[in-house]
Amino acid sequence: MRYSIGRGEQGVLTFEPYKGYLLRLWRFKTPEIAKDSAQRLEREFERFEEDGDFVGCDMARKFIQMGMTRSMRYANRAGGRKFSATDGSLLPKSSDHPGAKDKLASAAIFREVWERVKSRERYAELKKEWEREKKEWLKNHPKEEESEGEDVKWEGGEAVKVEEGEEQKPVTAKKRARSRAEKGDKPASKRSRVKKEEDASD
């Protein structure tokens, strides 16, 4: 019962084995690729639904939702980057950069499927059953700490949970480097940080 529904698509790239299984189906470079990807993910959603596997359903739903949100990010900004890597400032939107129209169409395809799957009655039933089971499980495991799907921020090199209602500001490259230095970690390469999205958008 370590899974957490979270908000939106939180936890979609961390919860195994579903993440590894569904990630290979997630693509959105062109409308044609997005349509095929969305259909494959919807079929997996339906298969999990038939098996009574709520976590599988919800993870498939998250990937479909992420197809929509990531496509929109690339439609609104060249390269899909929302914040500056140097100072964390919000980058301006654009609509005439190469690939913008394709990404906008991809987002619409994923949105249609997302609206469909999240409204299914069986999915809602499985969600209620899972929430009831998890509530009971937590009663029997009062010391169990859950981190899946939580928002965190860096303070003094430590990951600190963002409290409800607290605004989470983008972490700048300088802050990330400082927090890694405090922890003795080596900085990840730019390629490794964005590889998952590049694989899906290329």
Rounded mean pLDDT score: 80
SSE sequence, one letter per element:
HHHHHEEHH
Radius of gyration: 18 Å
* Spatial sequence of strands, sheet with the most strands: 1-2
Strand content: under 5%
InterPro entries: DUF4385 (IPR025494)
Biased composition (Basic and acidic residues): 135-169, 179-188
Protein name: DUF4385 domain containing protein
Pfam family, one: DUF4385
Structural notes for this entry:
The chain is mainly α. It folds into two domains: 1-150; 151-184, no CATH class. The chain contains seven helices and two strands. It has helices at residues 18-23, 31-50, 54-76, 100-117, 121-140, 173-183, 190-201, and strands spanning 152-155, 158-161. The longest helix has 23 residues, at 54-76. The protein starts with 17 loop residues before the first helix and ends with a helix.
List the main descriptive attributes of the protein structure presented here.
two-stranded antiparallel ribbon; 202 residues; 7 helices; single chain
What is the strand and helix layout of this fold?
Elements: H1 18-23, H2 31-50, H3 54-76, H4 100-117, H5 121-140, E1 152-155, E2 158-161, H6 173-183, H7 190-201
Antiparallel strand pairs: 1-2
Helix pairs in contact: 2-3, 2-4, 3-4, 3-5
